[in-house]
Amino acid sequence: MIPVISFVGKSGSGKTTLIEKVIPELTRKGWRVATIKHSHRGFDIDREGKDSWRHRKAGARMTVMSSPEQIAVIENPERDHGIRELRDRYIHDVDIILTEGFKGNPYPKIEVFRATLKRDLLCSKKDNLIAVAGDKQLKINVPCLNINDAEEIAQLIIDLFLSTSYKER
Length: 169
Known about the structure:
Elements: E1 4-8, H1 15-28, E2 33-37, H2 51-57, E3 62-66, E4 71-75, H3 83-90, E5 96-100, E6 109-113, E7 129-134, E8 144-146, H4 150-161, H5 164-167
Parallel strand pairs: 1-5, 1-6, 2-5, 6-7, 7-8
Antiparallel strand pairs: 3-4
Helix pairs in contact: 1-4
């Protein structure tokens, strides 16, 4: 089973930027990383007039675009899918999945916190919070890591989820 770690936090807290810094730290140490980004607003990677866009507009429920460098799957789902379904359906050949935007999921979470946003934390230990990556130390019962220290955050992920003992579970 591929471990999943969710980066959660309020809008504007820096989740994407932090994930962008953690990925190279993990890959530099030899780990293969996948990401899943959730958006409530929807998105469209097809541009109007392109062949794949035309296929979908003609009624194709799923379109796969393939080249020697990339493969993309564009699917019009019947409903919103959870992390487990997305992992099982689309992700393979990686060591870990980092997610962003799934606040209410059951997976281990690192909350990104900015004191300047003047908002409370979204999660607690009962929500499977394993750490806070922030710009100030908080008095909570999980590690508070420096949001600017991607190497430390990556090492926590390695220690907790990519060690031999975790892989054997």
